[in-house]
């Protein structure tokens, strides 16, 4: 599989600007990003690269006074898995809800184990993620908010659908929290394989199914789900939400993230058209996470 390496130069450069450029490029088919001193590098399959679409998306950058330019080159052939194993990521700690006792959900890779100072007297839930060119390590605000939302969701014995599963982190978290079964799908073959691999190393593979495809794959999935998760960009969420709702059980929960706070009205309106009510919201910097249900509206805001 051949990729282009696109170097985005952002002036003035900031973490928010890098996050927004990455998200906009993600809408143009980019799969992964690396931060640089002047912006970010993005990687996209050569057959999926659409220069006109990328220019249009970047022109709509919501941050004022930001100059964005980019250059395109062929990505060198390299062992992505080996590179990740050499770099990895520092453990991410998400506090458990008080009802679950004192402790944290700790997300880590194989090289950076949970901090030794974590108290053995507290209840820590550990998840190991080997992210082989797939999104979802817990380092991004949207992934952390989705994991925190799963911690607030009754999952014992439930059936979970994870749309755009990436590393499988959300499905694996749900299974470790007591879900009976999880099905995930992703349009990227590497991600679908990586999710399956991570389920194995977390010993939940017997209850996890990873599928390759887009939302159309749901036509081949039997039954409905109690919890549906989707951490994808806004445009895909708007387009695929009817397919999500079709697979929701009568009192199911839908958790969405991957978008900015400015996108909330569009998503809420789309959900309302499909018979869903907004029941909770989380915000982290410019990013948001929404919880929807078929049930009556409940005013709740979680920061």
Structure explained in plain terms:
The protein has 303 residues and is an alpha/beta fold. It has two domains: 3-77, 2-Layer Sandwich (Alpha-Beta Plaits); 138-293, Rossmann fold (3-Layer(aba) Sandwich), CATH 3.40.50. Helix content is 28%, strand content 31%. It contains eight helices and 14 strands. The protein has helices spanning 15-26, 51-59, 80-87, 141-151, 169-176, 189-201, 234-246, 264-273; strands at 3-11, 32-36, 39-45, 67-74, 92-95, 104-108, 125-128, 159-163, 181-186, 208-212, 225-231, 248-260, 277-284, 287-293. It has a seven-stranded mixed sheet, sandwiched between helices. The chain has a four-stranded antiparallel sheet with strand order 2-3-1-4, with helices on one face. It has a three-stranded mixed sheet with strand order 5-6-7, with helices on one face. A hairpin with an 8-residue loop joins strand 5 and strand 6. The longest helix has 13 residues, at 189-201. It starts with a strand and ends in a 10-residue tail after the last strand. Mean pLDDT is 85; it is low at 297-303.
List the topology elements:
Elements: E1 3-11, H1 15-26, E2 32-36, E3 39-45, H2 51-59, E4 67-74, H3 80-87, E5 92-95, E6 104-108, E7 125-128, H4 141-151, E8 159-163, H5 169-176, E9 181-186, H6 189-201, E10 208-212, E11 225-231, H7 234-246, E12 248-260, H8 264-273, E13 277-284, E14 287-293
Parallel strand pairs: 6-7, 8-9, 8-11, 9-10, 11-12
Antiparallel strand pairs: 1-3, 1-4, 2-3, 5-6, 12-14, 13-14
Helix pairs in contact: 4-5, 7-8
Mean pLDDT comes to 85
* Alpha carbon gyration radius: 19 Å
CATH topology of the largest domain: Rossmann fold
Largest sheet composition: 7 strands, mixed
Count of DSSP E strands?
A: 14
- Spell out the helices and strands N to C: EHEEHEHEEEHEHEHEEHEHEE
- Give the low-pLDDT segments: 297-303
The chain-level structural class is alpha/beta
What count of structural domains? Answer: 2
What is the CATH architecture assignment of the largest domain? Answer: 3-Layer(aba) Sandwich
CATH superfamily of the largest domain: Vaccinia Virus protein VP39
Shape: globular
Helix content: 25-40%
Beta fraction of the residues? Answer: 25-35%
**Span of the ends, CA to CA:** 41 Å
The main sheet orders its strands as 10-9-8-11-12-14-13
């Amino acid at each position: 599989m051949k990729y282009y390496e696109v170097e985005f130069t952002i002036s003035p450069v900031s973490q928010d600007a890098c996050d927004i450029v990455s998200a906009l490029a993600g809408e143009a088919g980019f799969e992964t990003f690396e931060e640089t001193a002047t912006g970010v590098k993005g990687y996209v399959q050569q057959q999926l690269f659409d220069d006109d679409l990328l220019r249009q998306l970047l022109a709509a950058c919501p941050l004022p006074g930001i100059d964005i330019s980019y250059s395109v080159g062929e990505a060198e052939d390299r062992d992505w898995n080996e590179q990740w194993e050499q770099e990895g990521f520092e453990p991410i700690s998400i506090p458990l809800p008080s009802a679950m006792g004192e402790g944290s959900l700790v997300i880590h890779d194989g090289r950076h184990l949970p901090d030794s100072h974590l108290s053995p007297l507290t209840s820590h839930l550990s998840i190991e993620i080997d992210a082989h060119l797939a999104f979802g390590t817990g380092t991004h605000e949207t992934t952390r908010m989705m994991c925190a939302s799963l911690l607030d969701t009754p999952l014992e014995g439930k059936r979970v659908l994870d749309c755009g599963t990436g590393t499988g982190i959300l499905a694996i978290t749900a299974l470790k929290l007591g879900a009976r079964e999880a099905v995930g799908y992703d349009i990227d073959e590497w991600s679908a394989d990586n999710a399956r691999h991570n389920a194995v190393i977390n010993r939940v593979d017997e209850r996890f199914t990873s599928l390759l495809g887009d939302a159309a794959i749901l036509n081949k999935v039997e039954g409905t789900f109690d919890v549906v998760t989707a951490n994808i960009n806004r445009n895909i969420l708007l387009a695929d939400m009817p397919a999500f709702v079709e697979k929701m059980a009568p009192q199911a929960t839908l958790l969405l993230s991957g978008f900015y706070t400015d996108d909330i009205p569009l998503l809420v309106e789309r959900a309302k058209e499909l018979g869903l009510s907004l029941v909770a919201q989380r915000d982290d910097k410019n990013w948001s996470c929404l919880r929807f249900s078929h049930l009556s509206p409940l005013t709740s805001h979680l920061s």
